[in-house]
Amino acid sequence: MLKLLKEACGVFGAQDFKRDSVFPYIYWGLRSQNHRGHQSHGFITFDREFNLHRELGLVPKIEREDLQNWLTRLPGHVGIGSIRYTTSGGTDEESLIKGIQPFLAETDNAKIAMAFNGNIVNNSQLKREIRVEFPDFTYACDAELLCRKLLLGLEESRSLASSVTACMRDVEGAFSVAGITQRGELFAFRDPCGIRPLCCGYSEDKNICAVSSETVGLDIGGLEFDFEVEPGELVVASENGFKREQLVKCESRALCGFEFAYFARPDSRIGDRYVYEIREDFGRNLGKEYTEITEDADIIISIPQTSNDAAYGLHEETGIRWERASRRHRYVTERAFILLPRERHSTIDKKINILDRRLHGKNIAVVEDSIVRGDTTKTIVQKLRRKGAKRVDLFITFPRIIGPCFYGIDMATYGELIGSKHNAQEIAEIIDADTVNYQSLEGLVRATGLTRDKLCLGCITSEYPTPLAQKMANKMKERFEGGHKERGRIYELASEQTIS
Ligand code: SF4
Question: What would the mean pLDDT of 104-120 be, rounded to a whole number?
């Protein structure tokens, strides 16, 4: 799928113990991860005090003549940054501006800066708790909630470890966090299920400690990956490297399965493998699972970028030519989120160029990473038909999405998901394809190199790794199937009592 689904966010943080300016590392760490969020970006550095820059839009190009300005405005040897896409809070311009991360919050005795990737499930309960202590609190987004929760803990205990433990104990959801204490220490932690990725690395001379959502954030700065932050773990940068502390036992590890198919950059590493290697295996699996369909295919085409590696795997498995007959208009960068739903099709149409010469009269195997709403895939299929394709068979690496996500991907309702109402055959009819062939769940799990109990697969299995999310999903499904209209993100609308 072209990058149309709203991702969560990405974070990056670095501390330079030679005390040089750390801003260039933060800048490139975010630029390399801009695929994780396009709505806003922000930087906070620390140099005796916190320095802040937050803005809507992509991380900007910095021209040579502006560089000194940036370095002057964001001095310091420690810093964090965030790129964001809204999965909590409003989406009007005022709300987007309020929700730009990193967040900086303070009380009389404590101050903390924080960048967050994820989503809070017990949002309503936490808001009530925060409002008791901060009566003027107006909710901007989940990062602010978690930041204030952390601050409350610091007020009471003065200990980062016990404040983070309280967050891990009381907050349900996905949170991979990079932050700076008021003493200028870089820290990072990950929720007890480890739903969103987070990794750490160093410069070769070990003077720089860095934390990043994905390994590409380290690669771009010439930093070496060292370890993934464990679920329930807090790490704090020090001159001797990261101090690691397991604060909360991880009862059920649950890394988001969709990271492998769609979100993560192909050149990022998760576990022992690069994401592109895993995606190649997805393609091979599809070839093995659907031999009766692929034997009639003349050519394979991929939807550019996220499906290329899987298309290569399918080509290797079947020997069918992978025809690079779909190309992206490189500088058409408008994102579909800025358009009204009825305009979505025309954006896809503008972004992808399909070359007809080798497609005409052919049976085409199209490789795609996922089908969420179905509208963008339909546009591609129709485009192929217009170019003379005889058959269009779709091969989808991520199994059928049947339920919402509560952990930071903006698919919040059953109603918006074509797979929640229709099986593969019905979807094929709706989007005008001959067949829709999803990779099996077993194939996906095997290719990740993890076991099923180490992954979140909630949106494709309806089994969610945290209890309130499971309750919400069950309740939402019951209401949806009963014909009730969904009003939006249930985790923001509902209290725990109304769900139970
Ligand atoms: S529900 Fe789906 S998208 Fe959300 S974290 Fe789990 S696997 Fe990822």
Answer: 91
CATH of the domain at 351: 3.40.50.2020
**Total count of residues recorded for the chain:** 500
- Do 118 and 80 fall within a single domain? yes
Residue 496 pLDDT > 50, yes or no? no
Residue 335's Cβ-count burial label (10 Å; 0-12, 13-18, 19+) is: middle
Q: Is 444 near ligand 1, meaning CB less than 6 Å away?
A: no
User: Are the C-beta atoms of residues 47 and 77 closer than 8 Å to each other?
Assistant: yes
Q: 261 lies in a domain?
A: no
User: Which of 141-145, 169-173, 183-187, 254-258 has the weakest average pLDDT?
Assistant: 141-145
pTM value?
0.91
Spatial distance between the Cα atoms of 321 and 297, rounded to a whole number of angstroms: 9
Q: How far, in Å, are 94, 124, 466, 499 from residue 496 at the CA level? A: 28, 8, 13, 5
- Out of 398, 405, 406, 490, give the residue to mutate to test ligand 1, the one with the largest number of ligand atoms within 8 Å of its CB: 405
Same domain, 185 and 40: yes
Within-domain flag for 352: yes
Rounded to the nearest integer, the mean pLDDT of the chain is 89
465 domain-assigned: no
**Domains in the chain, number:** 2
Same domain, 333 and 186: no
Residue to probe by mutation, ligand 1, list 7, 36, 256, most atoms within 8 Å of CB: 256
Torsion of CA 385, 387, 390, 396, to 10 degrees: -60
User: How far is the centre of ligand 1, averaged over its atoms, from the C-alpha of 215 (Å)?
Assistant: 20
Residues 294 and 420 reside in one and the same domain = yes
Known active-site residue 9:
yes
Task: Tell whether 83 and 221 lie within a shared domain.
Answer: yes
Distance between Cα 399 and ligand 1 center (Å): 12
Host domain of residue 119: 9-253
For residues 301 and 326, the answer to whether their CB atoms sit within 8 Å is: yes
Say if 474 falls within a structural domain.
no
Looking at mean pLDDT, say which of 74-88, 275-289, 463-477 comes out highest. 275-289
Say how many Å lie between the CA of residue 142 and the centre of ligand 1.
Answer: 17
- Beta-ladder partners of 364: 299, 392
pLDDT at 447 over 80: yes
